[in-house]
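User: structure tokens for this one?
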Amino acid sequence: MTADLSDIDRKLINSLQDDLPLTSHPFATVAEELGLSEEDVIDRTRRLRDDGLLTRFGPFFDAEALGGAFCLCAIAVPADQFEEVLTKVNAYSEVAHNYERNHRLNMWFVLATESKAEIDKTAAAIEQDTGLQVLLFPKEREFFIGFRVNA
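Assistant:
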């Protein structure tokens, strides 16, 4: 799929992973740096998202810094129930990410809520809906690694 990316699309994706300027027209600044129009940057970003080359484009909020909570969770889902459980889990607005893994604990997701109590409440609701145990892995220590993927 990445072979379908033009050089300018690759540059745009790499640029979007950096901080966007806090201006009234952040895409205009990006456009100027790439030698494009603001409209072209917006259209390309939308197309990359719509085509599935960007799975998510938006701000990242630190729930804890805003007074909330988040927690990494895992479930051991029987293979024949995976899609059904996935649909149920993803229906919760508190689910920020959801990944399938090749492991006994094959579904991993992040809960982001307004409080620690809401983490427990949401996990319990997911257990009720799915009939499966949700394992909670709260953060013990945070490490900023500056994750970035070059397109």
